[in-house]
Trypsin-like peptidase domain-containing protein
Amino acid sequence: MGRRWNEFDDWPSERRGKRFKGAVWPSVVAGLAVFYVFGIWTGAAIAHPRSSVVSYVPSPGNNNASQSSAASQGNSPLPGVADSNLVTNIYNQTKDSIFTITAVANQSGNSGAQEDIGTGFLINNQGDIATNAHVVGSAKTVDVTVGKTKYKGKVVSADQLDDLAIVHIDAPPSLKPLPLGTAKSLQPGNLVIAIGNPFELTASVSSGIVSGLNRSMSEQNNHVMNGMIQTDAPLNPGNSGGPLLNASGQVVGINTLIESPIEGSIGIGFAIPIDRLVALEQQLVSGKQIEHAWLGIEGMDIDSVMQNEMHLASDTGVYVTQVSKGGPAAKAGLRGDSNGSKLSSASQSDDPFKLLKGDGDIITGVDGQTVNTIEELTQVINGRQPGQVLDLTVLRNGSKTHVKVTLGTWPGQ
């Protein structure tokens, strides 16, 4: 069954610090596909490591010399006996540059304020701390604590779609920034370490491995994140914005999101690649707004079941259910399903294939590059800027055509 893609939902309150309540994404319901909306850089929901250091049993025939060499490159496999202190050493080297961030925000419709707690880490010698945008929320200032020392932090920037934020403090020279590595050299099975404040247990460390790379994840706000690092290092509420470190103590990701039916880790956590922060660092530190490209459609992945049910001309590609009124796709003449609006009021028992008419456009390529899924389309859009033109290859009523779309800026920016 195809997956649906919706848009413009608000950030879920469950993402915020210790308020996390469980699964980040909407569940897939029988007969109803999961719906995304095409925008671009998406924010991450919350992420959170848990307080425990995992002890690994060495594999038979492990070569300590080769392990040390791999560790020096930041791509260590599971540590053996000779590396039993590796996690401890990295923790001791980095913990003084990792902070508890407490943001207080007034909640509309409620009396009193909500206190949200997350994690952040120092990225330069000027006192700039990286964290998640959902940790700081709408706050202009936050409390920043390390050990018994407390600072007043100024929120310099908060990019909700990337879920990245910068907090500035007057840092003494004794505070050292964490070294930033890259997620590009990671491989499944590499050791990773997470440090943060799960359930307000400050300066907690957990470790695990890279479980997968280049994951595309959707959240309740229906933005799509591409290139995510999947890890089994336990992540729990309170570690949002904390560093994911490699075996050399370099930051390779920012813990930001978990998938779980409960309020806690089940071993499926995700981190934003540190490369995204590095690419945007100068803009974020200077307080400049990050612009995100927007296509303005709602769509579904096509598979063989959907093709047969709806008698479509292709069994792959992105089926356009709706185009946003006045959006870039609508202005370019892209066509949605004439019954697409019925999906927004559909119940769980409704069969989306019977609701749709089947006359919507099917996107099969962008700028000559084949597109089979929503994730592939969002990866292309995520790499572009507002104002750039996309040449979409489209199947319309069984015939191939091309639609040129000038990407807009994500609404609300």
